[in-house]
Design a protein that fits this description.
With about 210 residues, this protein is α+β, with helices and mostly antiparallel strands. It has one domain (about 1-205): outer membrane lipoprotein receptor (LolB), chain A (Clam). It is built from 3 helices and 12 strands; from the N terminus they run αββββββααββββββ. The protein has helices spanning about 1-30, 110, 120-125; strands at about 35-45, 50-60, 65-75, 75-80, 85-90, 95-100, 125-130, 135-140, 150-155, 160-165, 175-185, 200-205. A hairpin with a 4-residue loop joins strand 5 and strand 6. The radius of gyration is 19 Å and the shape is globular. About 25% of the residues are buried.
Length: about 210
Amino acid sequence: MKHVLLMLAGLLVLTFKAHAEDVVVLSEYLKAMDNVTGQFVQHTYDGKGALLQTQKGTLHLKRPNKFRWKSQEPFEQLLLSDGETLWQYDEDLEQVSIQKLDQRLSVTPALLLTGNVKTIAKEYDVFGEKLDKEYHFVLIPKGNETLFDRLRLEFDEKKLLSRMVIKDEVGQKTTLNLLNVQKKNKMKDSLFTFEIPEGIDVIRSE
């Protein structure tokens, strides 16, 4: 019995080490996502696998906590953060929503890519897998106040994100394929601020 317990204890230690290594590797990959630009094609499916919507657009990422996601097709929408404030601008609706940026990485996948990587282990269970020259990670939120149940991040051989897969509690799945991802020397902070156009509705949240 004692030998069995020792074996179980050894397995637990190995599992913990593997998990800890996955967090370290993921943290390094996410740190590399600084001053990054690219395009995206996003597909959303219902719980039965039927395609609900396809969106295309551009993205800009800058650490810490700055991101710019602009959907261009089939309708224009801008999700923007300067690190403290979050704007969601719907041009067709002539409306912008403004709120304080929630710093928790589990709230939005966009913040995960630019937020404080030191808190990943507190907010997610992380499982990594090495596939040839790529590295894939599955993240499962530990808390209940999240918009998704599971998130998959796929990085290419250059350690740049190439694909995200998000699944929510009702089975809906969103895939985000990134194209022409490039690293820039630097980006101007003005790219991550929003000037409110005249004549649009402004919704502010506490």
